[in-house]
Amino acid sequence: MKVAVVGATGMVGEVMLRVLEERNFPFTELLLVASERSVGKEMEFKGKTYSIIGLQTAVEAKPDIAIFSAGGDTSLDWAPKFAEVGTTVIDNSSAWRMDPTKKLVVPEINAESLTKEDKIIANPNCSTIQMVLALSPLHKTYGINRVVVSTYQSITGTGVKAVRQLENEYAGVKDEMAYPYPIHRNALPHCDVFEDNGYTKEEMKLTRETKKILDNNINVTATAVRIPVVGGHSEAVNIEFDNDFELGEVRRLLSETPGVTVQDNPDTNTYPMPIYAEGKNDVFVGRIRRDESQPNTLNMWIVADNLRKGAATNAVQIAEYLIANDLI
């Protein structure tokens, strides 16, 4: 099994390599791929030194799987070239997510839709993945009509430039900024660019991707906020169901969902937080309570490491599913 990691030197790419190592991913050959300016540089993986190669060299090597974390433009240009030589591409960017010919996959929810013909597979947005993983069992049981979500998102979702901005602001150093305003001791209601409807691209990803993954009839409205946190994304989610529910049953359904860990005990101050989610692959759910302002409505707090389940882990799980089901 020949595997290429495209964008291996980036923040998600480095986490991807850690996840591959932790999960003992079954490859026989590993290609570490990055932009031309990184070609020839060396990286260590499992005690072995690898030289970074360019995209064209990687295409010519015809890997079985290529996991992309190199940005939308790179994916649009190069994913089809890999697919043409028989490689199955799993793409972390937004480039292919809303393409009606491409599957948008969270393995625990809809991996069974994948076939050998799916040569470009889209990984959902980080904030979407953690939310739909928790929503899925509840939608199957009660039917979701509407979701109102406010996100509190880690600067790591922006990238290394944002991490440097926060570190510089901690130190009182003025340098290049990833955001239009300081992020230290601040909250920016501005994740990604604004669209014509006044929502940001990040907010509309939550709306559009949830519909594609779960059910086109689910209405979603979102507010996405960037906060000075590095461990993961947090979400306050209000869910209106078609049918009533019991809180004990909700907790049971979530506890039995693969990839979800329930942390919900107010008596012991037990609830999810990004400081504890960091470095873990699960989605953590807590603060589970009935919305007392209207019927059939639930509030939850959902937290996950956006670089892991929100990106690298989900992509590796897709690859594992493909191998386990002879789809490569």
Automatic annotation (TrEMBL):
Name of the featured protein: Aspartate-semialdehyde dehydrogenase
Superkingdom, natural source: Bacteria
Annotated positions binding NADP(+): 9-12, 37-38, 306
SUPFAM superfamilies xref list: Glyceraldehyde-3-phosphate dehydrogenase-like, C-terminal domain, NAD(P)-binding Rossmann-fold domains
Residue ranges of domain Semialdehyde dehydrogenase NAD-binding in the record: 2-117
Keyword check for NADP: yes
Catalytic reaction equation(s): L-aspartate 4-semialdehyde + phosphate + NADP(+) = 4-phospho-L-aspartate + NADPH + H(+)
Organism: Zhouia amylolytica AD3
